[in-house]
Hints:
This protein is of the alpha/beta class. It folds into two domains: about 5-100 and about 275-325, no CATH class; about 110-275, Rossmann fold (3-Layer(aba) Sandwich), CATH 3.40.50. It is about 35% helix and about 15% strand.
Amino acid sequence: MVEGARRTAHFRLVILDGRVYVERYRKSLQTRDEFTLWGILQLVRWYPGKLPDLELMFDCDDRPVIPANRFRRPNSNPPALFRYCSDDWGLDIVFPDWSFWGWAETNIKPWRNASRDIKEGNKKIKWTDRVPYAYWRGNPNVHKKRQDLLRCNVSDHHDWNARLYSQDWKKQARDGYKESNLEDQCTHRYKIYIEGWAWSVSQKYILACDSMTLLVKPVYHEFFTRGMLPFVHYWPIRDDQKCKSLKFAVEWGNNHTSEAQAIGEAGSEYIHEDLKMENVYDYMFHLLNEYAKLLRFKPEIPPNTTELCPEVMACQTGGIWRNLMEESLEKSPKEGAPCTLPPPYDALGLQGFLDKKANLTRQVEMWEHKYWTGFPK
Length: 377
């Protein structure tokens, strides 16, 4: 099953006796592979000597590639493949994305510092004093759903309560990223999250802003999003009638400011508290431990591997890449053991949670339907 994942993997990772080895197969987009490997090295530094021997395949591309419906027969052996997101029909194993240790190509700091800066940025403008519209800034060219979102921008004919801006990352790089500081983008009461080609790393930065997140119905999930609830941590937006859905969300929020502010703050607290780097490392630790328990072979160092160590990785890079690695370097182990892994949901408990999410989304859609038609749905 591990070998079966090699077809799309960017690298094979082996941890043996606390040392980390990598066999590379192909280069990833940008520096995703490098900072993912860097993040795993930081986990080893965070919990030295506590990780089991293991061997895994990692795919740094966006969309999941292991559909469950191809592996319904007994002993069909789906490939064991790690990546950054999955969907309701996928068996890909979801792992934190590279940007937790920095995203050099967009000048975004490691998450520990980026979240701190956003938290400080939240204090600049009180929620009630923020611009009472929905805000989005991003690259619309990665998928047609984002291009469709731009139709909701203010124009001479319509005002859907949205203020949308295209981001040209090449121009930002030339201009020194003056318009892309995350901590300066918490200026509106509402912020829009919409997927691109797959999930988007922007989700945690948007949710961190204290603004009520207007979350366009997603297809994909990353490792932390499935525990969030609509009308508690975010406001659900329909993907088939985005403009009407956005206009109603903003109208509702501006007429229910206390509730809208509470939703924004609950989503922000979820991100700043539950998604602290200490918890990210604990997720990684437990994920790799549970995965290693399933191995039915002893991991070995394959040919063509390179042993990884942080000093060599950082020294082989330069400029912002090296700066981000130095900034996200874990300088000392964590004091104490990882958190205790809670028991999994039983079937009834999981279904109850999923029903709650669906019912809360349905309630918002009923309000929206009545707003536009005057009749209950």
